[in-house]
Amino acid sequence: MIRWMIVIFLALLLISWFTPLLQKLGFGKLPGDLRFKAFGREWFLPITTTILLSFVASLVSQIL
Questions:
Q1: Which residue, 13, 28, 31, 58, is most buried by CB atoms nearer than 10 A?
Q2: What b/e readout covers 24-56, taking b as 16+ CB neighbours within 10 angstroms?
Q3: 7-20-17 Cα angle (round to 5)
Q4: Predicted local distance difference test score (pLDDT) of residue 24
Q5: Nearest alpha-carbon partner for 22 in 44, 43, 40, 1
Q6: Terminal Cα distance for the chain, rounded
């Protein structure tokens, strides 16, 4: 249980570090990434970016 919590924490840490870099490369602004305001707050659903990054990760894992 503790091992999974550490893995999730490290994954979230890496995502927060690489988010500005990915935004500079255009990720998060792809068609299919939804941004909308509701309840006085801005919401962001990166559907296309998630699919693209998952595809890249699966390619890398198959190569290695």
A1: 28
A2: eeebeeeeebeeeeeeeeeeeebebbeeeeeee
A3: 25
A4: 87
A5: 44
A6: 27
The amino acid sitting at 34 is: L
Coil/strand/helix, residue 39: coil
pLDDT tens digits, one per residue of 49-62: 889 888 988 998 89
Q: Which residues pair with 34 in a beta bridge?
A: 45
Residue type, 18: F
Q: Compute and round to an integer the Cα radius of gyration of the chain.
A: 14
Please give the residue range of the domain that contains residue 54. 2-63
Q: Can you read off the two tokens belonging to residue 28?
A: 């998060």
